[in-house]
């Protein structure tokens, strides 16, 4: 077990040594122990032989280790956890395997990532489904988090129809930074005549906050390892509900979907592995396992969220004092995403100007705004440096 602290983790991330980094919601830095684990895994596979009898126990060990770690974070059994490449594949593969009927409605919040929206639109085109919008963005911008759960549920109530078959709602909204009441929404959907499936994009929540309650409640809870978990890109997971495992069929088929390769291709795994496809990069499992160990040794999910909130609060409060700055949320963010707008300069020019100072944030298209993310590796001095730079821009 690797033991570290938030400052110790920072010291182990080469990407943080020469820049002020606020793009954890896009991609987190890879700690050196994770990089070392990846290269050691590559080496071990080559020593054993990439396709020999001796290599399979090692491959099974590494995939089982990361599967168990991610299932533990989600609070579910490993049979409910499928390994995926990213959030989009984690959403799309089980989503497209559900039994749809022409005229079914998909209810998507207006804060969903374009990748999920595009997948739902194409599914609707092929299956003859309707798409409705759940308006949440403006609601989040004017409602304190303490009142937001009730407001979201009211908005959901108004948007549901007798034909609603699925609701897509992110856990931590990637644009506003608001936290959605996933477990409560799931309870409400169970009371609906259709008992709509609940698809949750967990790209911003996994690794930044406790997720077990939401992951257990959702039908599809898809996440990646390369953002807040500070793992390598190309590996993530999806927690699936028991009822989805009973109803959904594989969509993209491969040998990993099969319980037995000699079965003639007709016997799927009975668990979440039916949504895995074929050969993947095993060393990524070794790297992500190392990153998850580092995070766990830096404190519990709740402890790490408190550290993240401390810096995001500091940043949000500092932005209130700068003329020409407007934050999207009316109070300090509940997690690590701080979105805001600037007067007198385009978001693209602002990102470029800050980047020239080695301060890295990003712009979003909808709404057109800037987003800075604080993690447990973020320091108060970095927040102050960003605030000073923004002051000069305005």
Defining traits:
394 residues; Aspartate Aminotransferase, domain 1; Aspartate Aminotransferase, domain 2; 14% strand
Overview of this protein structure:
The chain has helices at residues 6-11, 32-48, 55-74, 87-95, 114-127, 137-142, 145-159, 182-190, 212-217, 242-247, 282-297, 301-320, 347-355, 380-393; strands spanning 20-21, 81-84, 105-109, 130-134, 164-168, 197-201, 220-224, 236-240, 325-327, 337-342, 359-360, 362-364, 369-373. It has 394 residues and is α/β, with parallel strands linked by helices. It folds into 2 domains: 6-30 and 299-393, Aspartate Aminotransferase, domain 1 (Alpha-Beta Complex); 55-294, 3-Layer(aba) Sandwich (Aspartate Aminotransferase, domain 2), CATH 3.40.640.10. It has a 7-stranded mixed beta sheet with strand order 2-8-7-6-5-3-4, with helices on both faces. Strands 9-10-13-12 form a 4-stranded antiparallel beta sheet, with helices on one face. Strand 6 (197-201), helix 9 (212-217) and strand 7 (220-224) form a beta-alpha-beta unit. Helix 2 packs antiparallel against helix 11 (282-297), helix 3 packs across helix 11 (282-297) and helix 12 packs parallel to helix 14 (380-393). The longest helix is centred in the first third of the chain and has 20 residues, at 55-74. The protein is globular. The termini are far apart. 47% of the residues are buried.
Percent helix range: 40-55%
User: Which fold name fills CATH's third level, the topology of the largest domain?
Assistant: Aspartate Aminotransferase, domain 2
Number of helices: 14
**Class by alpha and beta content:** alpha/beta
Order of helices and strands: HEHHEHEHEHHEHEHEEHHHEEHEEEH
